[in-house]
């Protein structure tokens, strides 16, 4: 099947096939090896889902935060470009922890993650779209091994001087927590801290306790701008207007 032309893939024909062939993607194997993030930016989410499906990922709509029986995706567009790979890595660490929290909430573990970052095709300057796949030795929903694996896979592939505008993580190979047997002593696992982080944040507020740079109350570079929010007259008395 890998040697068949891309027109054998459902939904690829005509002008779309010609555009793919112009990029050197002529066979199903070529499409399978393509960078899904780059395909998304050059074409659409539909073609990105096709690439993911050819690589064994169940097709599912890609949204900012999606939880299904097949996958969990957490991604975000940045309000301003991020030039420093380490800061992109810190943003990915936050998204990984959000995905980790969703896994624990759903009572699931993930056996494979895909992390990605990309520049915007609509901004001047060079573009760079990168992704990395990691198959975990032991399926988990703990933030420590997930953050470590995501950063180790993605950050070395990032380039200084690029204007990264989006990043995220896709968790697949999901299974109910406790359903995957692990032989004692085969792989040393870090002490579980996910439930502790959840408990602290429930009591003292989201973001109070986190891994890496996230455990602060300072605005992070990838946070959405909130300067134009409407006043919270009904919930914050300090924002009530004073009439003299």
Number of domains: 2
CATH topology of the largest domain: Dna Ligase, domain 1
Output the CATH class name of the largest domain: Alpha Beta
Overall spatial form: globular
**CATH architecture descriptor text of the largest domain:** 2-Layer Sandwich
Secondary structural class: alpha+beta
Number of helices: 7
- Amount of helix: 25-40%
List low-pLDDT spans: none
Q: Provide the residue-averaged pLDDT.
A: 80
Total E-strand runs = 5
Keywords:
globular, DNA polymerase, domain 1, single chain, Dna Ligase, domain 1, alpha+beta, 21% strand, 244 residues, 5-stranded antiparallel beta sheet, 2 domains
Describe this structure in words.
Helix 3 (36-42) packs antiparallel against helix 4 (45-54) and helix 5 runs antiparallel to helix 6. The chain is built from seven helices and five strands. The protein has a five-stranded antiparallel sheet with strand order 1-2-5-3-4, sandwiched between helices. It has two domains: 1-59, 5' to 3' exonuclease, C-terminal subdomain (DNA polymerase, domain 1, Orthogonal Bundle); 64-180 and 188-214, DNA polymerase, Y-family, little finger domain (Dna Ligase, domain 1). Helix content is 32%, strand content 21%. The radius of gyration is 21 Å and the shape is globular. The protein has helices at 14-22, 28-33, 36-42, 45-54, 85-106, 143-154, 194-204, and strands at residues 65-67, 72-82, 108-119, 129-140, 164-176. The chain is α+β, with helices and mostly antiparallel strands and 244 residues long. Residues 222-244 are annotated as: Disordered. It comes from Kocuria flava.
